[in-house]
Write a structure and sequence with these properties.
Elements (H helix, E strand, L loop, with lengths): L4 E2 L5 E10 L3 E2 L6 E2 L3 E3 L4 E4 L2 E2 L17 E5 H11 L12 E4 L11 E4 L7 E7 L4 H10 L9 H8 L4 E7 L1 E3 L4 E8 L5 H7 L5 H13 L7 H15 L6
Parallel strand pairs: 8-9
Antiparallel strand pairs: 1-14, 2-5, 2-9, 2-14, 3-4, 6-7, 6-13, 8-12, 10-11, 10-14, 11-12
Helix pairs in contact: 5-6
Length: about 250
């Protein structure tokens, strides 16, 4: 077995809901509108290199593209938020395309590959990077869940909890529907999870995590999302200090 990629014992989950933009909403941000209002849609939905057919991305600078084709959020994480907020988090309520159960979305290793549905029919997806919460997300939560002490300073709260979900790259397109199985096909040996990177970019061990990600890419084991690569390079440069400029 290659040391580059670990193939773990079968780990499977399930697609709870497939969500796409229900309505483009006005937004106070620089773009002026947002497609974050995702809601469940019935039946199989086509997924390609740039995401789900019929979905809408308005802020194409910070969202969408090959490295952020789909956004997944875990059912267990959503239930935790329901406990904290005291209200339901509706399917699609965090702007996710896929609500998944049984798969640790936040604990997934960067570069992990998932088969959704039947091979040859459903897509093969690759975990690319964590979601970074923004003020558009905060405004959407306030509008849909409500403004309260529980949702105050939402971006900071969401960041501190660290259950931010994962963006996904589409390796092979296909059809996805609620009820589809999700199977982990392979996990890169570098071991850096989405959550570990997001919550620990400036914590002890960050340079080692950054070096592991950059090393894995250099060895041809994965392709990092551009903004994650830039962040990892910055972490390494800070750790090296003045000697990096010599």
């Amino acid at each position: 077995m290659s040391e580059q990629t670990m193939v773990p014992p079968a780990r499977t989950g399930e697609v709870v809901a497939v969500c796409r933009t229900h309505e483009v909403l006005p937004d106070a941000g620089t773009v002026g509108s947002t497609g974050i209002d995702k809601r469940p849609v019935p039946g199989p939905q086509q997924v390609g290199a740039l995401g789900m057919e019929g979905d809408t991305i308005r802020d194409t600078v910070n969202h969408g593209g090959v490295d952020k084709a789909l956004y997944a959020y875990g059912q267990d994480a959503a239930l935790l938020w329901e406990e904290r907020l005291g209200v339901p988090v509706p399917l699609g309520g965090f702007g996710e395309n896929l609500r998944l159960a049984g798969i640790d979305v936040d604990g997934a290793v960067v570069g992990e590959r998932w088969q959704v549905g039947e091979p040859g029919v459903g897509p093969v997806l690759e975990v690319s990077e964590p979601r970074t919460p923004c003020q558009t997300f905060a405004r959407f939560v306030h509008a849909t869940i409500g403004e309260s002490d529980a949702t105050a300073r939402w971006v900071k709260q969401f960041t501190q909890v660290g259950l931010v979900g994962s963006y996904l790259r589409v390796e092979t397109g296909g059809l996805v529907a609620a009820g589809d199985a999700v199977e982990v096909l392979s996990t890169p040996a570098h071991g850096v999870s989405v959550s570990a990177w997001f919550t620990g970019e400036r914590a002890p061990g960050a340079p080692e995590r950054a070096a592991a990600l950059l090393g894995a890419e250099s060895a041809g084991q994965l392709r990092l999302a551009e903004d994650l690569r830039v962040s990892a390079e910055a972490v390494v440069a800070r750790a090296e200090g003045p000697t990096a400029a010599r």
